[in-house]
Amino acid sequence: MKKLIVSICIGLLIMPTVMTPNAYAANSTQPKKMIVIFADGKVNQDIILKAKGTVSKEFKHVNVLAVTIPENSIDTLARAPGVIKVEPDFEVTASGRTTTSGRVTAPPPAQTIEWGVRQINAPNAWSHTTGAGIKVAVIDTGIASHPDLTVVGGVSLIGTSYADDNGHGTHVAGIIAAKNNTEGVVGVAPAAELYAVKVLDRRGSGSVSNVVAGIDWAITNHMDIINMSLGSPSYSLALDQVAQKAYDNGILLVAAAGNEGVADTTINNVGYPAKLSSVIAVAATDINNSRAYFSSTGLEVEVSAPGVNIKSTYLKNGYATMSGTSMATPMVAGDLALLKQANPNLNNIGIRDLLDNIPPDQRVIDLGTQGRDSVYGFGLIQAR
Predict the structure, then answer these.
(1) CA distances from 91 to 16, 200, 242, 332 (A)
(2) pTM of the prediction?
């Protein structure tokens, strides 16, 4: 089978259109996509219908509705009994600088252990733990069929198929759990169970409510780990609530800190959902264990992982080299799968403590300022 080897540099960035209820024209009937957050036990679809709106999404684990409603009804809806907040359903877009130079090769390339997987010492753990039996939900653009991947199941929240038609989600999935076989690459936790949760389309576009729905699905289907190689500069109460609900249900959530880094590392530009306390925020490092120039910084950064020139699975049975905190995040998700299989009696809080652990076990390499800092967090993860 022919495989395409491509080299791509891409980052995933959610770009919201920021709107607040008082920004809407008082007399406009233009339909707007919004998220309505209700008090406990107060979800009321009737008030949406009375406001001449429609419900587009319901959720099992949070008191939230995604709706389309005339903008002149938003202020009234926000004041309705039982309504905590009405917030915009932000449009999201995967964007980045892409360069391609590749060649078709036959036969398929022999398996290599990529530098990032070696840098976090994952191969040293495989004689004891491979992530077997650990369910990892990849909330992304889906996962494509690929000989180096086994996808156990999943869901598309934007269509009928969770197959990847963008490439980003497939690349992320391979970093987590590409098979330890004789070709291609091998993931950090090669026996972990991959679940494709498609919330972004072929252009990498979606909405905050899609991500909320993806986490909601992961709770219902008893995932162990959620990988979110995406981010937004804006806070969403609905996203915060469902992430906390997942964490309360024993799930580990990992998200990209963001690719908004600047030279001044005192600036906090960590995005959401990584910025939430229920989520592990991941920064990116290069082959020299230095901060990737694009990696966002802030007090919420918890750990770091390789995120520059990472080769992994891609579309059309191919492999691609990509950079971003999007690539560092699945390194951590894979490490968590190794830790969870090796420590079945620990809950998600205990596993998170192991991930962040400093001496004597030394599960991170402290980089930068001694102790936790806003550039590397606790440091570079180590799968020991």
Answers:
(1) 5, 10, 18, 27
(2) 0.92
